[in-house]
Design brief:
This protein is 34% helix and 22% strand. The chain is α/β, with parallel strands linked by helices. The protein folds into four domains: 139 residues, Methylthiotransferase, N-terminal domain (Rossmann fold), CATH 3.40.50; 123 residues, Transcription Regulator spoIIAA, CATH 3.30.750.210; 86 residues, Transcription Regulator spoIIAA, CATH 3.30.750.200; 55 residues, Nucleic acid-binding proteins (OB fold (Dihydrolipoamide Acetyltransferase, E2P)). The strands form six sheets. Strands 2-1-3-4-5-6 form a six-stranded parallel sheet, with helices on both faces. Strands 17-18-19-21-20 form a five-stranded mixed β-barrel. It has a three-stranded parallel sheet with strand order 7-10-13. Strand 1, helix 1 and strand 2 form a beta-alpha-beta unit. Helix 9 packs parallel to helix 11 and helix 12 runs parallel beside helix 13. The longest helix has 25 residues. It starts with 8 loop residues before the first strand and ends in a 10-residue tail after the last strand. Bound molecules: S-adenosyl-L-homocysteine (SAH), iron/sulfur cluster and FE3-S4 cluster (F3S). Iron/sulfur cluster binds next to helix 6.
C-alpha cells in the first residue's frame, strides 16, 4: 500500500508561517528527491502530504487541525481508488504538541519537528515497514511515528544541496532563540539559538550563485544575533563572525542583492550598521520589529529595549543609509495595554514612518509567561486597536509607494504575473513591482520606470530609449 518502488511518487507540502518554514519545506523536498518523490501542487494526487506548521498564534494552529480533517477525507478517497497517502505533520505545531497531535488526529502517520526533518527518510522507512505489517489499512489509525527531539547533531550536516534554481534564494544561517519574549513560542518550538559556521554558509551561497541566484536572503528567527564559527586561518584571528562580517564576505562572492530577516533591535551592532553604509549589495530595507511603542509594555514583553533605544538605532541606520526603508511587526492588546500605551505605539509609528508593517492581535500561547497574566485585554478592544493601527500603517505604506512614482527602480524579476506578459519583481525597498517584460528577463534585474502606486505594490514599464526621459 505505501509507495515502495522506485517509481516516482508525488509529494505535496503545505507551508504555514515564516520564511524559515519556507526554507525548511524546500529542504524537505530536497531530502525526499533521492527517495523518488517529486513535488506536486495538487493534494489529491499526493502519495505523501506534509503540513509544515506554525504555532505563533492560535489561529495558525487551528488551521492545521481543520486542514488535517480535509486530508483524512482525501486519503479515504485515495484508498477507495486503491492508492494511499502518508500524512505527516512537521514544523512548530508538531514540535509543541508532539504525540498530542496523534491523540487529536489519530489518522496522522508521522509527526516531526523543525530540528529532525533530516531524519525523514528513516521515518518513512519505518512507516513503510509498519504499513506492511498491518497489511489492511485501518481507516482510523495512522502509523504513529513521532520524532520531535532536539538532537545533538545539526540537521544542516545532513541536508543535501538543493538543485532548485531561484533568482531570489534563502539561506538559513541562524536558528532558534534565547530571547524569551513573554508572548512568544519560538524559543520552545525552535530551541536554543544556533549559528551555522561561516564556511558552510559561503559554500551554500556559492552553490546558489552557480544555480543563477541574484539575491540571497539570510534567514534566522534572530538573524542579527548570528555568531558563526569563523573560517579557519582568518588573518584577523577572530573565532566568530557576526552578521555584518558575513554580509561583507557574501558581497565579495559577487551576490548582487543581500537581505536578512528577522532582526531584533538589541542585536543591531556597529558592524552591521557599517555594512549598511559600505556594502552597496546590502539592500536599503530592514524589517526591525518593535512590537510596541510603550516602554511599560516593552518591559512586560521582555524585549529588553525601550522606545528611545529603538529610535536611536533607527537614527544610526538612517545616517548610514539615508534611503533605508523600514518595516516592523506590532502586537496590539498585549496584557495590561492601556489606551495610553496604545497611543504610544501609534506615536512611534508616526515618528518612524514605515514602508511596510505586519500587525497582530495578541494571541495567548500556552506555556508562555504572558499567557498566564490576569490582565488580558478584551477581544473587541484588540480588534478596535488593530483596525486603527492598520489604517495608519496602510496610509504610510501607500505614501511610501507614491514617493517612488517617477523614479527608476532596479527590479529583480521573480515570477510571472496574472496577465500574459506580466511579471512581478521586487524593488530594492522590497516593494512588489508589476511590469510587462519578456520571459527571457525572468531572474534578471531590469530598470523599471514607476508610474503607479497601489496599497501593496507599484507598477511601471521597462526603461527604454523612448521613456527614459520621464523617469529620474
Ligand atoms: N523573531 C522575530 C519574530 C518572530 S514571530 C522578532 O523577534 O521580532 C513574528 C511575529 O509574530 C512577531 O514579531 C510578533 O509580532 C508576532 N507574534 C509572536 N507571538 C505572538 C502572539 N502570541 N500573539 C500575537 N502576535 C505574536
Ligand atoms: Fe520570539 Fe522574541 Fe525570540 Fe523574536 S526575539 S523569536 S519575538 S522570543
Ligand atoms: Fe511560526 Fe515557527 Fe516560524 S511558530 S513563525 S513557523 S518559527
Amino acid at each position: 500500500m505505501f509507495p515502495q518502488t522506485l517509481l516516482k511518487k508525488k509529494l505535496y507540502i503545505k507551508t504555514y508561517g515564516c520564511q524559515m518554514n519556507v526554507y525548511d519545506s524546500e529542504r524537505m523536498a530536497d531530502i525526499l528527491t533521492p527517495l523518488g518523490y517529486i513535488l506536486t501542487d495538487n493534494p489529491d494526487e499526493a502519495d505523501m502530504t506534509i503540513l509544515n506548521t506554525c504555532h505563533i498564534r492560535e489561529k495558525a494552529e487551528q488551521k492545521v487541525f481543520s486542514d488535517l480533517g480535509r486530508l483524512r477525507d482525501k486519503r479515504d478517497v485515495r484508498r477507495s481508488q486503491g492508492a494511499d497517502m502518508v500524512i505527516a505533520v512537521g514544523g512548530c505545531v508538531a514540535q509543541a504538541e508532539g504525540a498530542e497531535i496523534i491523540r487529536q488526529a489519530p489518522y496522522v502517520d508521522i509527526v516531526f519537528g523543525p530540528q529532525t526533518y533530516h531524519r525523514l527518510p528513516e521515518m518513512i522507512a519505518k512507516a513503510t515497514r509498519a504499513a506492511e505489517k498491518t497489511k489492511k489499512p485501518n481507516q482510523k489509525r495512522g502509523l504513529g511515528i513521532v520524532d520531535v527531539e532536539f538532537p545533538l547533531e545539526s540537521k544542516f550536516d545532513h541536508l543535501p544541496q538543493t538543485e532548485e534554481s531561484r533568482a531570489s534564494a534563502f539561506i538559513s544561517v541562524q536558528e532558534g532563540c534565547d530571547k524569551f519574549c513573554t508572548f512568544c513560542v519560538v524559543p520552545y518550538t525552535r530551541g536554543a539559538e544556533y549559528s551555522r559556521p561561516v564556511t558552510e554558509i559561503l559554500k551554500e551561497a556559492k552553490h546558489m550563485l552557480s544555480l543563477g541566484a541574484k539575491e540571497i536572503t539570510l534567514l534566522g528567527q534572530n538573524v542579527n544575533a548570528y555568531h558563526g564559527q569563523a573560517p579557519q586561518g582568518t588573518t584577523s584571528g577572530e573565532q566568530e563572525w557576526g552578521l555584518g562580517r558575513l554580509i561583507y564576505a557574501l558581497a565579495d562572492l559577487g551576490v548582487e542583492r543581500i537581505r536578512y530577516t528577522t532582526s531584533h533591535p538589541r542585536d543591531m551592532d556597529k558592524n552591521l550598521i557599517d555594512a549598511h553604509r559600505e556594502v552597496p549589495a546590502l539592500m536599503p530595507f530592514l524589517h526591525l520589529p518593535v512590537q510596541s511603542g510603550s516602554n511599560k509594555i516593552l518591559e512586560a514583553m521582555n524585549r529588553k529595549h525601550t522606545a528611545q533605544q529603538y529610535f536611536a538605532i533607527i537614527d544610526q541606520l538612517k545616517s548610514a543609509r539615508p534611503d533605508i526603508a523600514l518595516s516592523s511587526d506590532f502586537i496590539v492588546g498585549f496584557p495590561g495595554e492601556t489606551d495610553q500605551d496604545f497611543e504610544d505605539t501609534l506615536s512611534l509609528i508616526r515618528n518612524i514612518n514605515y514602508a511596510q508593517s505586519y500587525s497582530f492581535k495578541y494571541s495567548i500561547r500556552p506555556g508562555t509567561p504572558a499567557g498566564a497574566l490576569e490582565n488580558q485585554i478584551e477581544e473587541n478592544i484588540k480588534a478596535e486597536r488593530l483596525a486603527i493601527l492598520q489604517e495608519l500603517v496602510n496610509k504610510q505604506q501607500l505614501a511610501f509607494n507614491l514617493q517612488t512614482v517617477g523614479t527608476t527602480q532596479p527590479v529583480l524579476l521573480e515570477r510571472k504575473g496574472r496577465l500574459n506578459g506580466q511579471f512581478i519583481g521586487r524593488s530594492p525597498y522590497m516593494q512588489s513591482v508589476v511590469v510587462m517584460a519578456s520571459e527571457r528577463l525572468l531572474g534578471q534585474v531590469i530598470d523599471v520606470c514607476i508610474d503607479q502606486a497601489h496599497p501593496n505594490s507599484i507598477s511601471g514599464s521597462m526603461v527604454t530609449h523612448e521613456n527614459e526621459s520621464f523617469c529620474i
